[in-house]
Design goal:
The structure is a single chain. By secondary structure, this protein is α/β, with parallel strands linked by helices. It has one domain (3-78). Helices cover 39% and strands 18% of the residues. The chain is built from five helices and three strands, in the order αβαβαααβ. β1, α2 (33-40) and β2 form a beta-alpha-beta unit. It is globular and about 40 Å long. The termini are far apart.
Length: 83
């Protein structure tokens, strides 16, 4: 049994929460780890939790990120932390 099947049969989803590192460019590429996660993630199994604060600190515009169709459909949860 695949790992994701074990989650699905229990009514669970995997949650991916970002920090700044996911927005760094991959070697010799304009692509980031976050780009890869968004492109390669099965949204029926995984929910992205966009941490707006960490995205902003990494130099990413969270509003622009939400406007990207794939990112918006993948982000089931957003987090804004203070302090």
């Amino acid at each position: 049994m695949r790992y994701q099947d074990q989650f699905v049969c229990r009514g669970m989803k995997i949650l991916v929460h970002n920090h700044t590192g996911e927005f760094e460019k991959l070697t010799d590429s304009q692509t980031t780890t976050y780009d890869v996660l968004i492109a390669e993630t099965d949204t029926s199994l995984v929910t992205m939790q966009l941490d707006i604060g960490w995205a902003y600190i990494a130099g990413v515009d969270p509003i622009a990120l939400f406007k990207q169709r794939r990112a918006a459909s993948s982000c089931g949860i957003s987090r804004i932390a203070s302090g």
